[in-house]
Specification:
The chain is mostly helical and 185 residues long. It has two domains: 4-62, Orthogonal Bundle (Arc Repressor Mutant, subunit A), CATH 1.10.10.60; 72-184, Tetracycline Repressor, domain 2 (Orthogonal Bundle). The chain has ten helices and no strands. The protein has helices at 4-31, 34-41, 45-52, 55-62, 80-94, 96-107, 109-128, 137-157, 161-165, 168-184. The longest helix has 28 residues, at 4-31.
Length: 185
């Protein structure tokens, strides 16, 4: 019997996290509730609280993810900007966790801090691997994040028609050179 309990515990945690990611993506941080997440997971809200304590800690756990940035050293330097924006477009359109984090980051300081932490921990080190001047990496990473997050905010959250209406290929053509400039100066 003791072997079943850890399996049930892991399955319950996984169900809660999956439901939380979907609910945060759909409703944003402010409107998502522990009760709605529990209902989506098919469990009692007390179980969510038991495993995660509060909504903020649940969100932090649900927002754990790897940006899966491409290894720029394995890509011709002339393609870095286009490859990065193509990568992020795919991620925004195929990962509800990133969408939830972006939506929540606009209105919730804990979510904004989570986004800052993820980008700092993953974008900076990716750039350090290929930087010709390591002293410029923090600035370059910040500018990359501003372009990527700004585009995502306008396209996926605010729904600005010109930004929503362009195809992924057009977005890559427009934004790729800007990212390239941030990457190599």
């Amino acid at each position: 019997m003791s072997e079943d309990k850890p399996r049930r515990s892991e399955a319950t945690r996984a169900a809660i996290l999956m439901a939380a990611r979907e609910r945060f993506a759909k409703d944003g941080y402010e409107r998502a509730t522990i009760r709605s997440i529990a209902a989506d997971a098919g469990i009692d809200p007390a179980m969510v609280m038991r495993y995660y304590g509060n909504k903020e800690r649940l969100f932090a756990a649900a927002a754990e993810f790897d940006l899966r940035l491409p290894d720029l050293s394995a890509i011709p330097q002339a393609e870095w900007g286009e490859r990065l924006i193509a990568h992020f477009l795919w991620r925004w359109e195929n990962d509800e966790t990133m969408m939830a984090l972006l939506r929540a980051g606009v209105t919730n300081e804990a979510a904004a801090e989570r986004m800052r932490t993820i980008f700092a921990a993953q974008v900076g080190p990716t750039l350090f691997k290929v930087a010709d001047d390591p002293a410029t990496v923090p600035t370059r990473a910040g500018l990359l994040a501003s372009q990527i997050l700004g585009f995502a905010l306008c396209r996926y959250i605010l729904g600005l028609p010109p930004v929503v209406d362009i195809s992924a290929e057009e977005a890559i053509r427009w934004i790729g050179p800007t990212l390239q400039r941030y990457l190599i100066g």
